[in-house]
Amino acid sequence: MSDQNNEDEAAAMGVAPQPLPDAAEQPAGEAEPDPFVVLQALQAENADLKDKLLRAVAEAENVRRRAERDRQDAARYGAANFARDMVQVSDNLRRAIATLNPEEREAASATVKALIEGVEVTERQLLATFERHGIKEITPAPGDRFDANLHEAMFEVPGTGQPAGTVVHVVEAGYTIGDRLLRAARVGVAKADEGNGAHVDTKV
Questions:
Q1: Angle at Cα 137 formed by Cα 120 and Cα 78, nearest 5°?
Q2: CA of residue 201 relative to chain centroid, distance
Q3: Nearest C-alpha neighbor of 91 from the set 158, 170, 194
Q4: pLDDT for res 201
Q5: Residues of 158-182 as b/e, b for ≥16 C-beta within 10 angstroms?
Q6: What confidence score (pLDDT) does residue 186 get?
């Protein structure tokens, strides 16, 4: 009866009556997610997180190794500039010792002899200090083959009878620090003799 009254009132107002929704047509609740799909999503997320974690650990290890290598290089080569200056002191001590030839030294007074001995002791102590800090002397012997990695050719000497490029004179000793070259040994090398087959004609 109530529904009939509503329809009559709607008709009187000029409004078409609207049918009530059927309970069977109401939207159903969302379906439960497939557990297998959920498991696959969780496994994929877990694999992604594991990959990111491994990458982060690897990057941290690389940073640690670089820092350790930099620390070792700083400890080993940080004094390279200072050492390069100190080898010049060694050069000067050696030149001072070489100033007197054996005859002059033998004839020198006791004071001069004591002075020379003091300079020699100082040079030996300096070289020993170099050795303790990984600084080693490079002194090629006459007849050694010239090595561009360790030697610097200052001049060529003709008529030595030695093969071209052979060290015939050492001007200054060289030095290495660790596995790096601190200063090349400065040497004179044998010049190729004319007609011995070693000369290369550069004229066209």
A1: 105
A2: 42
A3: 170
A4: 31
A5: eebebebbbbbebebbbbbbbeeeb
A6: 93
Reduced to 3 DSSP states, what percent helix, strand and coil does the chain have, rounded to the nearest 5?
50, 15, 30
Residue length of the chain:
204
186 contacts: CB under 8 Å, gap ≥ 6: 151, 152, 154, 170, 171, 172, 174
Q: Are strands 151-157 and 185-190 parallel, antiparallel or unpaired?
A: parallel
Laid out side by side, the sheet with 135-138 consists of 135-138, 174-177, 180-183
CA contacts within 13 A on the Cβ side of 101: 1
- Residue 27 in this model has a pLDDT that exceeds 80: no
Query: What is the rounded CA–CA span in Å between residue 170 and residue 91?
Result: 12
Q: How high is the pLDDT of residue 22? A: 52
CA 138, chain centre distance (Å): 24
Structure tokens at 13: 């107002």
| Residue 16 binned pLDDT confidence (cut-offs 50, 70, 90) | low
What does the DSSP assignment read for 107-146?
Answer: HS-HHHHHHHHHHHHHHHHHHHHHHHTTEEEE-PPTTPBP
Q: From CA 135, how far away is CA 76, in angstroms rounded?
A: 10
> What string of H, E and C letters represents the secondary structure of 79-108?
CHHHHHHHHHHHHHHHHHHHCCCHHHHHHC
